[in-house]
Amino acid sequence: MSHVTLDRLSLRHMGQRALALSELSLDIPAGRVTALLGPSGSGKSTTLKLIAGLLTPTAGDIRFDGQSVVTLPPEKRDVAMVFQNHLLFPFLTVAENVGFGLKMRRTPPDQIRTRVDALLDVVQLQGLGERRPEALSGGQAQRVALARALIVEPRLLLLDEPLSNLDRHLREEMRQLILTVQQAYGITTIIVTHDQEEALLLAEQIALLLDGELAQAGDGQTLFERPASVAVARFFGGRNFLPGQRRGAEVTTALGCFRLCDGGGPQGAVTLTIRPERLQVVALEAASDANHLTATICDANYRGSDTRLCLQQGAHHFEAVVPAADFATWRIGQAVALHLPAEALWVVEGEG
Q: Among residues 227, 155, 176, which one has the least CA distance to residue 218?
């Protein structure tokens, strides 16, 4: 396993004026799972291909355990990559696909068989070694691709949207398998995904890329609850934003003044935000003077596990997620009070 350092990594594709990736700096800890998260075109797969050596950076450095690998070809980097499409050899059996890397390294056949059988057990494909890829389900094919990557014992495992072609049930199974395998082998793993739930479930560190730049990196809870910008908050489902002026522990907005838990953080022009799950909807008569505002319910959607309320106060729109059992409590057109608990409020710099 390796500690990976990306140092001001940039890439401009030939014939393009704009950078596909701009000065990305990121530490990827050894033996952990790091997710490169972001929408399509944000630079996630580009970063993965740079690490693998499939692309050459325009500027910057890539280091494995402190040693630069920028000039090393892909086959010298000792990394394994699993793609969105499994890319299995159709003319080989499952066992032959898994053992292909060892065969290329001239490993003795008896050792190949032993290691292939052991790894097929790990990825829960016992008894399928003689099947051809066309006889496999999508989930089984991705398990074969994962086993093929692991059998060469790489220092780094790169996963490029490996679950995006699977249905929900298979995705959940593969997530658990990836976690089980990663913990068993302790291999440094980098997974590319556009799915925030997937990143939160799999990764100990998430690097959110937006428009080819690193928007924020940290653990999932930090990015989810303490976003560095309005753009990060929006990506993670933030819907409630109030521009205002902060002075100490108070933010003055067009809808009133709101108290925070402390006075630290950005001052002056800021944007106040609160997660839909933390915004409390109460009857008007139950409202207190502190951190409340009035709004009107303009839409209500029952979603099985919860109820989503859309609310409006003048030009300002809010979203609240309340228990499913509360669906019958609220009606469209009803005036309500919104409570913004101080401990649930977060402030980002600038009026986003």
A: 227
Q: CA 262, CA 346: separation in Å to the nearest integer?
A: 11
Q: Of the residues 174, 191, 225, which one is the last residue of a structural domain?
A: 225
Residues above pLDDT 90, as percent of the chain: 77
Question: Could you give the CA distance from residue 26 to residue 210 in angstroms, rounded to a whole number?
Answer: 14
SS3 label, residue 344: helix
Per-residue pLDDT of 68-122, as tens digits, reads: 999 999 999 999 999 888 789 999 999 999 999 999 899 999 999 999 999 999 9
d(CA 56, CA 50): 6
How many Cα atoms occupy the beta-carbon half-sphere of 53 within 13 Å? 16
The domain boundary residue, chosen from 194, 225, 256:
225
Taking alpha carbons only, the member of 139, 129, 146, 141 closest to residue 94 is: 129
- Report the predicted TM-score, pTM, of the whole model to 2 decimal places: 0.91
Residue 10: count other Cβ atoms within 10 Å of its Cβ.
Answer: 16
Query: CA-CA distance, 197 to 194, in Å (whole number)?
Result: 9
pLDDT, tens digit, 9 for 90 and up, residues 202-218: 999 999 999 999 999 99
Does residue 320 share a domain with residue 283? yes
The pairing of strands 188-193 and 156-160 is: parallel
Q: How far is CA 310 from CA 47, 229, 240, 313, 335, in A?
A: 38, 23, 10, 11, 12
Residues 96 and 201 reside in one and the same domain: yes
